[in-house]
Structure formats: C-alpha cells, structure tokens
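We were asked to recover a plausible sequence for a given structure. The inputs and outputs are reproduced exactly as logged, with field labels preserved.

PROBLEM: sequence recovery
POSITIONS: 216
GIVEN STRUCTURE:
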C-alpha cells in the first residue's frame, strides 16, 4: 500500500514570499499515561530531498529509524525538547505540549523566519507562525519533525524499560494499552507516570487493586 507522502507546497509558497528558514514543529506523547511529551523542530534544506518523509503515525518503527539520520543530515537546523511527567502534571498536557514545542523552536540555530505547527498556535514566539490542521500529513517540514520527535521519545521509553521492565514501556511507549493498565494495577505508579491523566479504565483497575469503590 502506498503511504501518503508529505508535500513541500506550503514551504515553497512561503519561500516565494521571501521567508528563507522555515521550521516545521510537531510533538508526540500527548495521550500517554507515562513518560514525557517530546517536541521537535526542523528546518530542512530546500534542495536536499529526503525520500519517504511522511506523518510518523503512518510509518513503521523501522522506517522512522531509517529516516532519522537522513532528516538530520538534510537539516539546516533541528532540535528536540521534552517536558517530563511531573511538569505535565503541574501545567496540564496541553500547556506542556506547547512549552515543549516553543523550547524546540527557540533552540534552533539559526532561528527560523517562519514556523509551521501541527495543529496549535504556539504562544510567545517572536517569529510568525501558521498552525496547520493535519500538518504532519500536509507539510514535509512538520512530518520530518514528527519523525524526529517520535524516534527520540521511543528511544527514551526503551531506555526506561531497561531501568524498570515491570511496565513494558518498550512495547507500548507509555500509552494506555491493556497490558500497561494491568501493570499499573499490579505495581502502582512509577516516577514517570502522569498522575493527572487517567482514563476511566485505569481508575477502575486501580480501585479494584486497592479494594476501593469508585464513585460514578
């Protein structure tokens, strides 16, 4: 099956308007029960084409790993930033995601002249930006950022699995799979679990483990 390939149409239109360095920004890990939210920002060299760049969600883990190096080598600048579970609990996941994206953008050297963001406007940026719904499918720069963010976060979760293999972070990467919920019910929270983001099924599992009654 042919995967949808991201396009450089949006970036090329901005270049015709005079913008030189155009960054794509995306984040991963918003919907997880554990681990950080990770954002990446990347400015691709216009004349260095990397075949296969697409939304990270439609790529296999092997494809994402294979593309990581070529994207980095084709980048004028790139950066990755993360916000950990404790800070996510303090800020809430939406604000933490925006913080990670802002940190990724402001760490670029040189700073971009324009920023394309997947989905949301990033507050307090000094340069113009455009939020694009479904941007990781429409913009090559955003798709490239989604790959860098996803690969970085997956590598980190595999490292956490080595440190504490009870939860299976190497398999589910912190998302609310059945085996992850079962592990939390059995072992409780680890230091990297988010206390403020729990689906109803997790409440039920914890209540059952603790012998409590959850009020509806």
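RECOVERED SEQUENCE:
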């Amino acid at each position: 099956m042919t995967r949808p390939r991201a396009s450089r149409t949006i970036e090329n239109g901005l270049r015709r308007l005079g913008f030189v360095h155009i960054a794509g920004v995306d984040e991963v890990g918003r919907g997880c029960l554990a681990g950080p939210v990770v954002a990446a920002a990347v400015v691709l060299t216009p004349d260095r084409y990397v075949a296969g760049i697409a939304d990270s969600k439609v790529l296999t883990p092997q494809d994402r790993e294979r593309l990581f190096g070529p994207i980095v080598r084709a980048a004028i600048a790139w950066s990755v930033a993360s916000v950990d579970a404790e800070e996510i609990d303090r800020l809430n996941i939406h604000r933490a995601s925006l913080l990670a994206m802002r940190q990724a953008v402001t760490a670029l050297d040189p700073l971009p002249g324009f920023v394309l963001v997947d989905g949301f406007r990033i507050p307090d940026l000094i340069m113009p930006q455009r939020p694009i719904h479904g941007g990781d499918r429409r913009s090559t720069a955003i798709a490239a950022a989604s790959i860098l963010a996803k690969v970085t976060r997956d590598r980190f979760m595999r490292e956490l699995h080595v440190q504490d293999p009870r939860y299976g972070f190497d398999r589910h990467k912190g998302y609310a799979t059945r085996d992850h919920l079962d592990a939390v019910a059995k072992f409780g929270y680890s230091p990297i679990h988010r206390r403020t983001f729990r689906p109803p099924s997790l409440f039920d599992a914890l209540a059952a483990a603790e012998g409590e009654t959850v009020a509806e």
